[in-house]
Write a structure and sequence with these properties.
Oligomer: homodimer
Shape of chain A: elongated
Domain HTH arsR-type (chains A, B): 8-106
Pfam families (chains A, B): HTH_5
Keywords (chains A, B): DNA-binding, Transcription, Transcription regulation
CATH architecture of chain A: Orthogonal Bundle
Largest interface: A-B, 54 and 55 residues
CATH superfamily of chain A: Winged helix-like DNA-binding domain superfamily/Winged helix DNA-binding domain
InterPro entries (chains A, B): ArsR-like_HTH, HTH_ArsR_DNA-bd_dom, HTH_MetalResp_TranReg, WH-like_DNA-bd_sf, WH_DNA-bd_sf
Structural class of chain A: mainly alpha
Distance between the termini of chain A: 35 Å
Largest sheet of chain A: 2 strands, antiparallel
Number of domains of chain A: 1
Protein name (chains A, B): Metalloregulator ArsR/SmtB family transcription factor
Helix content of chain A: 40-55%
Number of helices of chain A: 5
Radius of gyration of chain A: 17 Å
Chain lengths: 110, 110
DNA sequence: TTTTATTATCGTAAAATTACGATTAAAAGT
DNA sequence: ACTTTTAATCGTAATTTTACGATAATAAAA
């Protein structure tokens, strides 16, 4: 027990959940905001902007990378992070589809 | 250690993260899909549609409720679940804003 | 009133997450 | 070569999540 029953769900649900989970921490939202702010992506100064230690930020970056939402290329001494355009679009679309499915309830109970 | 440093982030980031976290499990996505499928909201048969035990489903429902995304009203013997329109819209908007911020990178590194 | 159906909660266990300091690795600068 | 800078990884600890069976709690049905 304790581990998610991944195999039992549809690929679509697993994929959306994966992206949503990556977005499910304020530190990672903050990191993404920093990356979204700039058109260039030399960003070795993410740590300074967050109230967390270097190792913790690195861990959050790793999770965003593992979810596919960001990429990190070594650029000399620093690492160059940026949003992964494809994954970003996929996440946006998948979530948009789900959110768009809502139609107001016609029964009196809610 | 182990607990999220909630106070140190902006309310916006905490709020989006809260919604995203609630969406961050395939079972909860599946539950939301079931609720989104119908215009009425008498839904006591969520358990049958999922590969999880009754207590586990109940726990997932609780988390969706605590995040604000769904409501549950007692309707006789059963409980009537449905999407919370306001929270749903807020979550959609907050995520949409973040996703919309992306502009392709103009440097060569990614 | 007793039974049945439905959902929540409790207790428990395994696993994952969050966080930090310390260490390592790699590249650049001296 | 040595030092410095930058980021990842390791080791560790607390907390949270995921999951289940068993047990309440509540309301309808018999």
């Amino acid at each position: 027990m304790g581990a998610t029953k991944t195999e039992e769900f549809t690929l679509a649900d697993i994929t959306v959940a994966k992206y949503a989970k990556a977005l499910g921490h304020p530190a990672r939202i903050a990191i993404l905001r920093i990356l979204l702010e700039r058109t260039s992506c030399i960003c070795g100064d993410i740590v300074e902007e967050l109230p967390l230690s270097q190792s913790t930020v690195s861990q959050h970056l790793k999770e965003l990378k593992e979810a596919g939402l960001i990429k990190g290329d070594i650029e000399g001494k620093k690492v160059c992070y940026c949003i992964d355009a494809q994954a970003w679009q996929e996440a946006q679309q998948l979530l948009q589809i789900i959110f768009g499915k809502y139609k107001p309830c016609d029964t009196s109970c809610c």
